[in-house]
Amino acid sequence: MKKKLIAVLLVASMAASLAACGNKNAATTSTDSSAADTATAEATTVNTDTTTLRLCLASEPDYLDPALNSSVDGACLAVNSFVGLYTYDENNNLQPAIADGEPEMSEDGLTYTIKLKETKWSNGEALTANDFVYSWNRAVAEETAADYAYMFAPIATNADGTLKIEATDDYTLTVELNAPCAYFFDLLAFPTFMPVYQADVEAANPDGTTPGAWAQEPGFVSNGAFTLTEWKHNESMVYEKNPNFYRADDVKLEKLEFMLSADDTAIYAAYNSGDIDFADSVPNDEIQSLLNSPEFHVIDTLGTYYVGFNVNSDLFKGLTADQASKMRKALSLLIDRQYIVDTVGQTGQVPADTFIPDGMADGNGGVFEASDFGYYDATTTGAGNVEEAKSLLEECGYSFESDGNGGYSISPALEVTYMTNSGTGHEAIAQCIQQDWGLVGIKVNIETEDWNVFLEDRKAGKFDIAREGWIADFNDPINMLEMWLSNGGNNDMQLGKDSSNSSAPSWKAYDEKIQEIYNTTDFAARVDLMREAEDMLMETNAVVPIYFYNDIYLQKENVKGIYTSLNQNKYFMYAEKTAE
């Protein structure tokens, strides 16, 4: 899932993310900040309204429709206002939610029969199995244009493209798969698989051209712990307790009030003054003072911060696909990852030498990345690789002369634009890369965009080079690999999207590899196939991993019960707040 990491989700993560769990470099990860050798931060002001939790996750969300959202902040809002068949508990274990107990699985692992609890929508109407049939088929429909439509690939389809799912009665859902799926229950907890209220969706989209319109203003029907009752766009949102939530008796809060902002300094000021109780953003220059604060939390997650190249960019015009890959490899080798994590990160992130993050399960009872495996030594990239980078660039038609100051000039002149979204951390990383590439005479212009514009420009391929981040949606490597399908909605690098472009890698074999992974019934062979797919991805050098994520946030000491999943979804519904 796309990490907003704007001055909100990532500014702090970038400044305070430790290595992803189980990293091969054996760096310490932590759930608190007590190990830092800094002065303990003073406690901040708290507010005493025990019925309302005040928070800041990010700026204006791109989508609230769970079928259309593809960002972490949007998913956090979704899991607090919708609920699917499964959910995660405070220990990151999958638990039945709307599902009434464990599903019945056929002997061949291809058919699941799922019984549903008798629950209600927020308007009091019964929520039935037919609501899931409608919602899932809507998510895969071409006119919905959901970025995550590919996540339904494990489910078999009918001749008309609809899914082989059936409501055999009001509270029984039958699902037929193409092959046994190691992560099927994870999918049942994912926002894209959550039900949406058909009458709202269709009333707001009579001509079928605006599929997300129904959730662009407050008042829409949902089935989660809270419903959106007020939305001052680009300013604030208010969610109120849903009395028809299936666990309403366990929800102690009456309201969630969200501050919408991309200004990490303003968010931090609001937190310190007691105006908000929870913040997912911390200014870079405040990190060191917070490392020993009991209000500062660092948690394990699975994800990769990376630089992405648009393979269809004019930057590679006139090059062969092999030359374009070598050009990208040269630029990757010049990035000093260790310097970035030491000077921008400051708290021990691990430089990334693979795209699939360390610690991710392999779907067959093991860990995917071996402790001694990497595509390069991420701790030594940077200035020490100048000669190799020059050699690769020379194969692409460039030549170099010493500038007399330890660097080089490049001919023909090479000027590139690096696109990022707002945030002090993102911009600091962009400046590091600007300096690294400057060693060989490349001029880098840094272009900053607002979050929602940034998302759309990346998706549409309106960039040459961009900062990227992906938090795994579930703990299986396929999630980090299927996003690069040619028709995938999250394939920002445009791999396979223009088969006529001779400078872009041929991508048909990759698409076929993913389909082979989907269809295999041998979980051990599946692991090998996923390794082959990652090899194919990394050979393009279009995806340039920088470091592995952890997640950080600030939370008042009078707030308890908030928990976070490995995919950084924040669950606020069971939080409690005391007066002091």
Explain what the structure shows.
Keywords: Signal, Transport. Residues 94-491 form the Solute-binding protein family domain. It comes from Pseudobutyrivibrio xylanivorans. One of its GO terms (biological process) is peptide transport. By secondary structure, the chain is α+β, with helices and mostly antiparallel strands. It folds into two domains: 52-295 and 556-577, 3-Layer(aba) Sandwich (D-Maltodextrin-Binding Protein, domain 2), CATH 3.40.190; 298-551, Dipeptide-binding Protein, domain 3 (Roll), CATH 3.10.105. A seven-stranded mixed sheet has the order 10-11-12-1-13-22-14. A five-stranded mixed sheet has the order 19-18-20-15-21. The protein has a four-stranded antiparallel sheet with strand order 4-5-9-8, with helices on one face. A hairpin with a 2-residue loop joins strand 8 and strand 9. Helix 8 (321-334) packs antiparallel against helix 10 (386-394). It is globular, with a radius of gyration of 24 Å. The model is unreliable at 5-39 (pLDDT under 50).
Short description:
By secondary structure, this protein is of the alpha+beta class. The protein folds into two domains: 52-295 and 556-577, Periplasmic binding protein-like II (D-Maltodextrin-Binding Protein, domain 2); 298-551, Dipeptide-binding Protein, domain 3. The chain has 15 helices and 26 strands.
